[in-house]
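Hey L., structure's done. Input below.
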Amino acid sequence: MEKKHYTDEERAALAEQAAANAGEHFRHGLNCGECVLKGFLDLGLTDYPPETVALASGMGGGMGGTGRLCGAVNAGMLVVSAMHGRKDPYGKETFEERLDELHHPETGIYPRHEAYLRAVMKELGSLECRDLCFPYPDFDSKDRKRNCKAIIKTCARIATDMALRD
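Output:
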């Protein structure tokens, strides 16, 4: 698909729709990582097939249930990569060009993803599932589910906004 330039208003509306989509998927039993990625894929802005959501299946519960990096946070990285990742890492001819594609301070893949993580940290205070869910030790409690749904929606919104930036 051809890259489109999105206005601030279009980006905000699409980010809110992705968040709503992700929240709805959580209600139907998808894990946090699946929700964020599927919420974005539902927008139809990429040519990735729906089965791509499988890439996020192991992210739930803080990376395979370990309580480490929040699956919603990590799936947000996939969302940003869906629009700005390298579909052909060998597309640049030289080693130096490939590194620049990753590290360039204004256009690089790493700075773009770092900006996403910084925005999530600013809003949520942590990237770790165990920190984000610490007040809710009972995995099946309504309070924890509400908390996780809010985290999922936040990550989907921020990731989609970042993914749709030029």
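The chain has a mean pLDDT of 96. The chain has seven helices and no strands.

-- N.
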